[in-house]
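Exam prep: given the inputs below (a chain plus zinc ion), describe the expected output before reading on.
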Amino acid sequence: MADVRLIPCLSDNYAVLVHKGDETVLVDAPEAGPINAALAETGWTLTTVLITHHHADHVQALADVRGSARVIGPANEAGKINGLDETVKDGATFSLGPIAVQAIETPGHTAGPISYYMPGEGIAFTADTLFAMGCGRLFEGTPATMWASLQRLRAALPDETAIYCGHEYTETNARYAHQALPGDVAIAERLKTVQEARAGGEPTVPSTMAVEKATNPFLRADDPTVAEALGMAGADPVEVFTKLRAGRDVF
Ligand code: ZN
Ligand code: FE
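Solution:
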């Protein structure tokens, strides 16, 4: 298994280093200082950077951290990202040294972001698409596109997969989930766990797919108990998802 190091950046972003053999992969480049400090501390030499999407808070430190690493990013956002050496499309599978990677395009937050799954390491990087207990805002997609992307992740990622997302938004997401589904015991319990972690200055990332399937309302838009709790029994999952996302936008 790879060594994985979570790197808090800016006010609430995460970058991640994945190290195995001679390969060191950085996922996203929000801020040079903490990333270069982590590289110095570990002694790892960056070999590859994987970019999830074009937003500045995920790419702006690229030039200051990349060194001689090759940079891979989403084909459908390539025109908006400076410094890509290679692009990947949905369904691409490739190897970074001993690390196997699958690219899953998950539009909704932006038009063509890529979530990266490393099946041999049991980890996935879902950036601003699937958050712990939440999902990204719909800047370049509709509720239907985001719901389809979340369903793809739900189907593709095994329960035990560690989910690394792009921001520490979990406490707000948990409070919203609890407000939307006050009778849900698993959500109420996770809210407590998350609040304790944050009060202690601990990250809530990564979670696992099993935990997200159980407690992330945005992955449960087709769960009849969620529709019922929102007063939408029998409604189409896209309508349920739309209401959940709209509520979070103003929470
Ligand atoms: Zn973003
Ligand atoms: Fe972001």
